[in-house]
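Hi R.,

Here's the chain you asked about this morning:
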Amino acid sequence: MDDTGLLVIVDAANVVGSVPDGWWRDRRGAAERLRDRLAAEGVPGHPGPVEIVLVTEGAARGVESVPGVLLDPAQGSGDDRMVDLVAEAGVFFFFFFFSDRELRRRVTSLGADVTGPRAVRPAGGAWAPRRDG
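And here is the predicted structure, written out as tokens:
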């Protein structure tokens, strides 16, 4: 990553789980909607170069990358994968979107900046459910 850009690591499970909109009935679909929203709209308040990494786990692990959003399927704990990404990146600009206090402690100890899931949720809080057929 270019050191003038911003690395944004998004915890898919935490962001979609922050709104009780039925996401648990279609975890993969909820992660895809988040991915698509991030690809289309980027990160509010950050118009410059942004590299978005969306970390998925569990049922959402099979979601694929699209232009603008790199999917990183955690093979184990999503939290552990995000900590590894911070340690591997070696850059100073990070924004994480999650509300897990222990994860917040772990990544801020590595120099990451953290904000909550509201920063990437749509206005009104919920994603429109998928209508298939």
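One quick note: Confidence is low (pLDDT under 50) at residues 124-133.

Cheers,
M.
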